[in-house]
User: Fold this.
Amino acid sequence: MSSRELESYRSGQPAQLADVLERVLDKGIVVAGDIRINLLDIELLTIKIRLLIASADKAREMGIDWWQSDPFLSGGNGHGQLEERLRKLEEKAGLPTTKEKS
Amino acid sequence: MSAAAPLPEDGPGWYLYGVAAAEEAPTARLESATAVDPQHPVALVVEGTLAGVTSRVSLEEFDEAALPQRLGDAAWVEQKVRAHEQVLEGVLEAASVVPCRFCTVYRTEAELRSFLAERNEELTRALARVAGRVELGVKAFVDRDRFAAGNNAVRELAERVSQAEGGRAYLESRRLEQLIGQELARFGAEVASALDERLRAAAEDGVLVGLQRPEVSGREEEMVFNGAYLVSEKPRFEQELATLAADFRGNGVELELTGPWPPYNFVPAKLGEP
Assistant:
């Protein structure tokens, strides 16, 4: 292979955290072995881990409660608000309402 | 939540990184590796034909009551995940390995051994599938601005935007952003399917992994493709990648190769579950 070809794609860099997290964590977590986690916890943790994958660097800068500042989880201006609106609409329409997440 | 089971044994638990064939598994390389719990060395637990790559871990740190909180701590997760990966990379230099999931922990050596013994057949099958093979990652990126400049539909609309004024200009520029997004998605999907087809042909197997946003990938360009491949002939795969990189460069697509990785994406997802 010519050196030109070798330079045609990037490689050989140290593994980026996102790539490592993606592989080590992406298949879900912590269900093998003896140590068990409540299934609901796993679901929540998986969301947190996805956010971690999405914002590891930012998280380090912020240092604290990093996932809580994410609108998706905190409900500040994303998902939560949407659910709230949905709930109100359902109430108005006299339908059984979407369960509020604890 | 169920009540926590009483600990059958005092002292640290056993963290299992992965499983290798006993006759292949290296010991020398492991001694220098940093374990997930750095107080304890990485060691092999040989049970029959298989060797578990393990280290002891504090159950205060890794028990189910503590883990949910730990997993919310980004710094903790990063350190442990990197240790998990580095131990497996050490094994991979000398032997094929079936990686376990993050935080696979046994409370006692007896339970770890019974896992290796009872699952011997399943683990041996998983090991045979990855033997002599490595996982390689391939990502493709497109520069959004360069792409927009080269796309006819986008150029046409951009011209109209530049002539519009006031509220109309605002609406048109919103439309332009939307159009760039759509065109880029369409182009990205084409690139991804072409890449995947050719790379699969040079590999034993392949899977598509989720795309990373720019703040994750660390690159300004848009990621349009993220694949993982189980590869036995690395030079052949790299040759094909170089050819693809040359073919696609004209379209503003850049490829990135990562690995070799332990074959995380090519072991049974439920391995080790009861």
About this structure: Residues 166-201 of chain B form the longest helix (36 residues).
